[in-house]
Amino acid sequence: MNDILPDQTPVWQYLERTVGRVLSGYGYQEIRMPLLEQTHLFKRSIGEVTDIVEKEMYTFEDRNGESLTLRPEGTAGCVRAAEEHGLLFNQTQKLWYAGPMFRYERPQKGRYRQFHQIGVECFGMDGPDIDAELLIMLARLWRALGLMPHVRLEINSIGSAESRKAYREALVDYLSGFREELDEDSRRRLETNPLRILDSKSVDTQKLLDDAPSLEDFLDDDSRNHFAGLKARLDLAGIEYVVNPRLVRGLDYYGKTVFEWVTESLGAQGTVCAGGRYDGLVEQLGGKPTKGVGFAMGVERLILMLETLDLVPGTVGAGADIYVMGMGEAGEAAALKVSEDLRDALTERTIVSHCGAGSFKSQMKKADRSGARYALILGDNEVSSGTVSLKPLRTEEEQRSIPQDALAEELKTLLN
Ligand code: ATP
Ligand code: MG
Predict the structure, then answer these.
(1) What is the distance of C-alpha 88 from the center of its chain?
(2) Is 118 in the pocket of ligand 1 (CB under 6 A)?
(3) Of all atoms in ligand 1, which is nearest to the CA of residue 251?
(4) Would you say the CB of residue 301 lies under 6 angstroms from ligand 1?
(5) Among 56, 293, 300, 301, which residue has the most ligand 1 atoms within 8 Å of its CB, making it the best to mutate?
(6) Which ligand 1 atom is nearest residue 51's CA?
(7) Residue 90 domain-assigned?
(8) In this structure, is residue 3 part of a structural domain?
(9) Whose CA is nearest to atom 23 of ligand 1?
(10) Domain span holding position 153
(11) Residue of 199, 269, 295 to mutate, ligand 1, most atoms within 8 A of C-beta
(12) Judgement on whether residues 64 and 152 belong to the same structural domain of the protein
């Protein structure tokens, strides 16, 4: 679990701002859910034999002996909230959320125990048009962030529950003949969650899979048409993608469309955004049958990418514009007044007032460190003549005197 320190927060804000702008540009609305839910919500949605539920959840009993869990992902809580507040009754929803998620994993680069996701969930739409919109919207976001050339979209259809069941049997049949050659995880999954073997990281297991039955051959017509519809729309929008027939997700609720945006620039933790369709989930959690599709992106991994690839704009976290210093009692009073007047006039600018007195030299040092382009100095002389001394901090220009009532206009011009 990480502290996000002041030198990091500007990048977080930049990312959150950019995502927020793109999502609201498509008419998506924000929802905020609690960080805690009843444990059974996650067991019933994510699935009992998934990695998340088996070994990654922070679960504890509250004072009433009720089992609660820190949310490991956002979809389950979002469905719970939407259902509980009637958002799914005879209407469609396009929702987004952002915030921390918790998983007890082995911490490493790009993998933390408290991490952050920005997620989107759409309800009540069953066609491939909404699946396509999500991917087109994400492509717009990657372009806005400069990440587009560094990510690859992988898509797949994992079909209906029935087609997956038939495929599961065929896959288990085939792999049972090679039980001893499978990696340890995959051997265990053969009993519990065989589809997950498809995305095994083991090279030997992947080699065995080359001759395994293919999920595509088991797809039902409806899923096949849906997938064709998605691909046609991505083509229309000029979105490049790779069909990865071995792409499956680690959560049980997905069916039909699944996708991941993957990068090579982060090493092993290469998936920055993942999602898919979950048409059965609302009903499974006790609601009326309602189709759903969504995704979640990993904020830490995106920030790591922005930094590794040097894509954070120079203006992000640039610090103060103006640093105001008052010398002596009268000077300090005037500085307070001038600062507030400037904040009225230059609403977009950062105006830092020196606090804590100190010598002229030490105040100048702080002004320099604030990143400000100009220092304003108010002492007895300035107070008696109704002026301000303006000192450029980033150029060799001389300090000069400006009448207080002309200051705001002068700074507006200077800072543009
Ligand atoms: P992975 O295969 O990397 O473990 P996942 O399938 O568990 O990912 P999802 O549950 O689909 O991941 O979460 C969506 C995104 O959230 C991931 O693609 C990743 O960017 C991010 N994410 C997941 N777990 C972590 C973590 N422990 N630390 C940081 N980011 C994470
Ligand atoms: Mg995981």
Answers:
(1) 25
(2) no
(3) 10
(4) yes
(5) 301
(6) 7
(7) yes
(8) no
(9) 298
(10) 9-159+219-308
(11) 269
(12) yes
Residues 109 and 53 in one domain: yes
117 lines ligand 1 (CB under 6 A): yes
What's the pTM value of the predicted model, to 2 decimals? 0.93
Asked whether 276 and 258 are in contact (CB, 8 A), the reply is yes
Q: How far is the CA of 60 from the centre of ligand 1 (A)?
A: 22
Q: How far apart are CA 125 and CA 292, in angstroms?
A: 7
* Tens digit of pLDDT at every position of the chain (416 positions): 999 999 999 999 999 999 999 999 999 999 999 999 999 999 999 988 888 999 999 999 999 999 999 999 999 999 999 999 999 998 999 999 999 999 999 999 999 999 999 999 999 999 999 999 999 999 999 999 999 999 999 999 999 999 999 999 999 999 999 999 999 989 999 988 899 999 888 999 999 999 999 999 999 999 999 999 999 999 999 999 999 999 998 778 899 999 999 999 998 889 999 999 999 999 999 999 999 999 999 999 999 999 999 999 988 988 899 999 999 999 999 999 999 999 999 999 999 999 998 899 999 999 999 999 999 999 999 999 999 999 999 999 999 999 999 999 999 999 98
The token duo for 276 is 């898919």
Residues 390, 326 within the same domain: yes
Exposed (0-12), middle (13-18) or buried (19+): which is 390, by Cβ within 10 Å?
buried
Which CATH number is 228's domain given?
A: 3.30.930.10
The reply to whether 326 and 297 lie within a common domain is no
Phi-psi region of 113 (alpha: psi -120 to 50; beta: other; left: phi over 0): alpha
Kindly tell me the burial class for residue 213, based on how many C-beta atoms sit within 10 Å of its own C-beta (0-12, 13-18, 19 or more). Answer: middle
Report whether 139 contacts 149 (CB < 8 A): no
Number of domains in the chain: 2
Residues 303 and 329 in one domain: no
CA of 56 to the centre of ligand 2 (A): 9
Q: Is any atom of ligand 1 closer than 6 Å to the C-beta of 115?
A: yes
